[in-house]
UniProtKB/TrEMBL annotation:
<dbReference type="GO" id="GO:0010270">
    <property type="term" value="P:photosystem II oxygen evolving complex assembly"/>
</dbReference>
<feature type="transmembrane region" description="Helical">
    <location>
        <begin position="32"/>
        <end position="56"/>
    </location>
</feature>
<dbReference type="InterPro" id="IPR021883">
    <property type="entry name" value="LPA1-like"/>
</dbReference>
<dbReference type="Pfam" id="PF11998">
    <property type="entry name" value="DUF3493"/>
</dbReference>
<keyword id="KW-0472">Membrane</keyword>
<dbReference type="GO" id="GO:0009507">
    <property type="term" value="C:chloroplast"/>
</dbReference>
<feature type="transmembrane region" description="Helical">
    <location>
        <begin position="68"/>
        <end position="88"/>
    </location>
</feature>
<keyword id="KW-1133">Transmembrane helix</keyword>
<protein>
    <recommendedName>
        <fullName>Protein LOW PSII ACCUMULATION 1, chloroplastic</fullName>
    </recommendedName>
</protein>
<keyword id="KW-0812">Transmembrane</keyword>
Length: 282
């Protein structure tokens, strides 16, 4: 988006806002009511202030001062609270868009499957649950060896191990592709209204599902490390520390933690691919 100019950048932002609206469908409704109530309280205050001045001056026909002051205080207090809620909603939306942007950037990172095919994580959605193991060579290797003991059960849950060893590879030029950019020719075709495109997409998914095994190697390590360090900083973790990240079937981050995962806990947490909970996760 940065390289493509304003048009691509605005399209990127629009796509993120659409995803944000799907994840928080009532935010717009809440903000509408905040604005409506702020306007109502403002109008009420507009008429209350002259009455308050009249009450201060006293005289015949003057309204009760305490009652008028109480009404004005309620209106002003309501405006302050509603304005604070409105800005809080905006802040939450920005945080959500940042998280969505990070997830979509992750989805464009490439991996090499066991068949030597290079694909982006976005193409593995609905097929597997990638588990990213990032850290020192010793920690990642040990975690991979422990995972081998549970290989069969992990495969039934769609787990795909992606080891990322910090500083193990040479830097390569290039930046990760952002959400909303042009897909590469190797990408699976999207499902459209046309029957032939739909058939081709289903066939591509089936071939990809057959190629997915227990482990995938990263392509463009510097991009992976950059994303993981950004994720660590956002979660308050020291960059470069051993971490693991478990993704959902829909590609979003399920959970993450320091160190390497406990495979017994993961087996208890993740449902099998054919279970109802997995179908709801897609």
């Amino acid at each position: 988006a940065l390289r493509g100019g304003e048009d691509i950048g605005s399209g990127f932002r629009r796509d993120l806002k659409l995803i944000s609206e799907v994840q928080a469908p009532f935010r717009g409704v809440r903000r509408f009511f905040y604005v409506a109530f702020i306007a109502a309280a403002g109008i009420s205050t507009f008429f209350t202030i002259p009455r308050l001045i009249f009450a201060l001056q006293g005289g015949d026909g003057a309204p009760d001062f305490l009652e008028t002051a109480g009404n004005a205080a309620i209106n002003i207090g309501g405006i302050v609270v509603l304005v604070a809620l409105f800005f809080w909603e905006n802040k939450k939306e920005e945080e959500q868009i940042t998280n969505i942007s990070r997830n979509e950037t992750l989805s464009r990172l490439p991996v090499r499957l066991s068949t030597n095919r290079i694909t982006e994580l976005v193409q593995l959605r609905d097929i597997s649950r990638p588990v990213i193991l990032a850290g020192s060579k010793a920690s990642v290797t040990q975690a991979m060896q422990r995972a081998e003991r549970y290989r069969t059960d992990l495969l039934k849950r769609g787990v795909l191990l992606i080891p990322v060893i910090f500083g193990a590879s040479l830097k390569v030029q290039g930046k990760p592709k952002g959400f909303g950019t042009t897909r590469s020719a190797a990408s699976a075709p999207s499902i459209g209204g046309d029957f032939e495109k739909r058939t081709e997409s289903i066939a591509a998914k089936s071939r990809l599902r057959a190629e997915v095994r227990f482990k995938a190697d990263i392509v463009s390590p510097e991009q992976w490390e950059s994303w993981i360090r950004d994720q660590q900083e956002s979660e308050g973790v020291t960059p470069g520390e051993d971490v693991y990240i478990i993704l959902r079937l829909d590609g979003r981050v399920r959970r993450s933690g320091r160190g390497m995962p406990n495979w017994n806990d993961i087996l208890k947490e993740l449902p099998r691919l054919e279970d109802l909970l997995s179908k709801l996760e897609r």
